[in-house]
C-alpha cells in the first residue's frame, strides 16, 4: 500500500506540474501573439522557451503513462494477493475446525483409556435389540448363556439359568449366538 500511495502522490504532482506548464505555454503563446511585429530576438527566445516547455510536458506525460501502467499492475497484484489471502484464510478455518475435531477425538480416547470404558455402539445396539432374550456369548475365558438384562456402552449383563449375574465387557467377546 505504501508504494501505491507514493505512486499516486507522484502522479498528482506530475499532473499539477503539467497543468502549470500548460498555463505557462498558453501565457507564452499569448505573449508571442501580442507582440505586434516586435523584437525578433524576444520572439525567438519565447519560441525557444515554448519548445522547451512542450518537450518537458511530453516527458511528464510519458512518465505519467508509465506510472499509471505500473499502478494498474500493482492493483492487479493486490487483487491477486487478496484472493490468495482469502483462500488461505478459508483453508485456515477448515484446518482449525479439523484440529478441533481431532482434539475432541483425542480427549475421548484419553478418557476411554483412563476409565477403561471403551464404547462399542454396534455391540450395544445388538444387545439392546435382544433385551430379555437368551443369548450365548463366547469369550476366551469360556462360554456364557443367559438372558440379556442390562446393556451399557462397553458391556452386557446377563442372568444365567442358575441365577448368576455375569457382566461381560464387549472387548472380551469373541462370538455371540
TrEMBL record:
The lineage of its organism: Bacteria, Bacillati, Bacillota, Bacilli, Bacillales. InterPro entries: FapA_b_solenoid. Residues 43-112 form a coiled coil. It comes from Peribacillus asahii. Keywords: Coiled coil. This is DUF2642 domain-containing protein.
